[in-house]
């Protein structure tokens, strides 16, 4: 999809610089949205099978079967996701928020099941990266209509938390969540239709509520970094080059067939 009419406004760029986020409505085209939903459902089924077979150690400790799922590294398992990850519209998002250089750093599906979907506590995505690093970009794509009833994300503007510095996080017993904000600000809820994207810095605090609706809430979260993210051992984290000098270098990745 060329999506030549899509662009990030100057106001949205300014909001990102000052508050650490902006929200886009109905960005993802229908065929990409259908693909994302199908892959998500397949990977949830595979995750359940892994849990049932006793291979729990292969999964994230913050995944809880039948309640919420964090499915990491989906692109490595389903290369068709490249059609979304390296699309023209995601290139525009990365240029606006990160600049001329970006790498696909991480990607995961986040699913909250109907009625029992768990809360996710206040955190910065950078709080889960122990090595010193430049903040990266989190793109929270709604695969279903999201609202406060079904556990949408809440964002905490930088001006209401004293800036965008990365804070120390502590692990919460029971859920295994990392928590970095303990104030009483409720944050700004993101209410968008399926195909909308909340774009925020990895230094932006966010949380999500429980899913009290009667339907599953699915999200695809992609992280893009301005550099190859470091690791403490002196090696580099895996990164897929996306933009160089503002131009996509993803090549034929976006042409993967269904």
CATH top level is Mainly Beta
- In the CATH hierarchy, what is the superfamily? q2cbj1_9rhob like domain
Instruction: Characterize the main sheet.
Output: 8 strands, antiparallel
Counting structural domains, the number is 1
Distance between the termini: 14 Å
Helix and strand arrangement:
Blueprint: H1 10-19, E1 21-24, H2 30-52, E2 68-72, H3 74-77, H4 82-85, H5 88-97, E3 102-112, E4 120-123, E5 137-142, E6 153-155, E7 170-171, E8 178-179, E9 188-189, E10 197-201, E11 206-208, E12 217-225, E13 240-244, E14 247-248
Antiparallel strand pairs: 1-10, 2-3, 3-12, 3-13, 4-11, 5-10, 5-12, 6-9, 6-11, 7-8, 13-14
What does this structure look like?
This protein has helices at residues 10-19, 30-52, 74-77, 82-85, 88-97, and strands at residues 21-24, 68-72, 102-112, 120-123, 137-142, 153-155, 170-171, 178-179, 188-189, 197-201, 206-208, 217-225, 240-244, 247-248. It has one domain (21-255): Jelly Rolls, CATH 2.60.120.620. Strands 1, 2, 3, 5, 10, 12, 13 and 14 form an eight-stranded antiparallel beta sheet that branches. The chain has five helices and 14 strands. Helices cover 20% and strands 24% of the residues. By secondary structure, it is α+β, with helices and mostly antiparallel strands. The two termini are 14 Å apart. The chain is globular, with a radius of gyration of 17 Å.
